[in-house]
Amino acid sequence: MHSLIATIYAAAEPINDKKDLYPKLQELIVGAIAFGVLFFFMWKWVLPRVNQVLEARSQKIQGDLESAEQAKTEAQKELGDYREQLAGAREEANRIIEEARKTAEAMRQDLQKKAEEEYGAIVGRAQEQIRAERDRVFQELKSQVGELSIALAAKVVGGSLDRDRQLALIDEYIAELGGMAPSGNGNGGPGRE
Predict the structure, then answer these.
(1) In angstroms, rounded to a whole number, what is the distance separating the alpha carbons of residues 55 and 63?
(2) What is the pTM of this model?
(3) What gap in Å lies between CA 36 and CA 38, rounded to an integer?
């Protein structure tokens, strides 16, 4: 068994010869032909396909860049339009507010003027009513004073006076009362007419 192991070991032992290290000429020729075929195949079919893929990729990237640039330009334009519209809207809002203020002021002045006119009309009607009432009361008092004065005169004189004389006395007495009657506007104070 020893000899069998020694034989296997001797057969498995590598030969370290210098000629075994370099390739043989036939291997070099076959390798060169295989390389040439592979190179031709790569140059004829693979490189054009790779170039097409790279060119398509380059064009796609260029198109994407152009699209992005165009989108950026459009976005800037829309932003400018938006800012312009916003400024216009602010100006319009300010104009509307100013118009509303002017309208409110005009309405306030109009209402104030109408209120003053209505106040004047009410005061005028009230003064007219007071004057009419004063005149009515004055007429009633005039007739009552006339009757009282006739009754008083009849008692004082002891007899009756003739009608003309009585009326003359009444008119004189009323004239005296009219001169003593305070002139006013019906408010208890002097007249401001």
Answers:
(1) 12
(2) 0.36
(3) 5
